[in-house]
Amino acid sequence: MGIREERRRLPIVALAPPTRSRRALPIAAGQAPVPRIVVWEFTSACDQHCAHCGPRSGKRRPDELTTEEALRLVDELAAAGVGEVTLIGGEAYLRPDVLRIVRAIRERGMSCTMTTGGYSLTREIAEALVEAGVQSVSVSIDGLAACHDALRGRPNSFARAFAALRHLKAAGSQISANTQLNAKTLPDLEGLLELLAAEGIHSWQVQVTMAHGAAADHPEILLQPYQMIAAYEVVERLLARCEALGIRLYPGNSLGYFGPLEHRLRRNSTQRGHYFGCQAGISGAAVSSHGEVKSCPSLGEEGVGGSWREHGFAALWERAPEIVYMRQRTRAELWGLCASCYYAAVCMGGCTSMSEPLLGRPGNNPMCHHRALELDRQGLRERIEPVRPAPGQPFDHGLFRLILEHKDPELRALHGPLTIEEPRRSRVDEPRGPGSPLA
Questions:
Q1: Where is this region: Disordered (predicted)?
Q2: How far apart are CA 212 and CA 372, in angstroms?
């Protein structure tokens, strides 16, 4: 059954407004926090072939959750206190039962949003999604037309993404956009903002491309740590222009960490004023299309707590070591320059899904504006160099070494690397004791 048939079959009923807030709630001692938001990879089926795709989407997994299982999962998310469910993919709307699940999410009092590449999102699909209860949709647009189409692996992808924005707005959805910040997109961002503003977006999320999934196979698109200074010069101009246009520039968790723009970047985000450290397994969680529950949608095996089919959502959220990891971590787990940083106790090494795919473990994050500026003042810079390729699985990663060297090219040629930080053993490679904490 396709979306058209499903839309005709569903009754038209009034949807209650969402009753749950995304604000962080106080946590009693020993009590698990309430997951404010869950990002659900509804299907791995996709109609594009993106060079930076974390899940390496394309074909639908043969063991994806059935409609009945998905409906039970919705019930469990509501019971856990989830305030918002964001459907992603692949492409969520490629599953014909998406309308039924959207409606179930809304009927259980949760908000329902979606992130999409928009390649096949027609006017009819947009109207059906809004009618079912999708409230806001973020369309992924990475640079101007030539850059976007090249990164997305499909001709006319850029034009189709903008058409999707127009279809969604006409159908009554709030619209926003999200964009990868990398070596290819950086020159296009200011021109792209003007085009997005003309479409009436309310927010624009910008995130640094992470070295996971397909992006691990394309290190040429990744920013080098020392390039964060030049990148933030662009970001500062984007902030000023967004403020003038009334658009909220929303930083992804891979962007930020206490540089001079931190307050302006995060004053409109859920972490108001400054970064509070990685929120994986603290404020939200993720579910894969075949029911794996993770602490963060961008993490691979290292963030998987277990199978929803086997354990259920609540048990994994409350007790799986991979999910509670961030709740229990201390400064003792920081290493490299992050261990001695002035902001270490609050930042805790930044975004886990940025640092772990680079260096094998969280706790040392070279993709930091503050860090790049501090090194630059000393005449130094950092760069990354691949040492191990990714195996080719969803959300996998290779490994990189981190090289500290002189900023001046003549000194660099004379002295070579000053230090070389080799990648560390991944959390998933560590020996594990017998038994399961979920048993």
A1: 415-439
A2: 22
DSSP string, 178-236: EEEESTTTGGGHHHHHHHHHHHT-SEEEEEEPPSSGGGGG-GGGSPPGGGHHHHHHHHH
Contact 82, 37 (CB under 8 A): yes
Distance CA 137, CA 165 (A): 8
428 touches 322 (CB < 8 A): no
pLDDT tens digits, residue range 116-173?
999 999 999 999 999 999 999 999 999 999 999 999 999 999 999 999 999 999 999 9
Contact predicate 361/349, CB 8 Å:
no
- Answer for the pair 141, 148: CB distance below 8 angstroms, yes or no: yes
Is the domain of 195 the same as that of 303?
Answer: yes
Going across the sheet that includes 380-388, the strands are: 380-388, 399-406, 419-421
The answer to whether 48 touches 156, Cβ cutoff 8 Å, is no
Determine the structural domain holding residue 388 and report its residue range. Answer: 331-429
* Among 126, 111, 104, residue whose Cα is nearest residue 39: 111
Q: Is the pTM of this model over 0.85?
A: yes
Distance of alpha carbon 23 from alpha carbon 334, whole angstroms = 28
**Looking up tokens 């599953």, which residue turns up?**
95
Question: What digits encode the pLDDT tens for the residues 294-318?
Answer: 999 999 888 999 999 999 999 999 9
| Same-domain check for residues 279 and 363 | no
| Spatial separation of the C-alpha atoms in residues 90 and 291, rounded to whole Å | 15
Of 275, 298, 327, which residue is a domain's last? 327
Residues with pLDDT less than 50, the chain: 12-29, 432-436
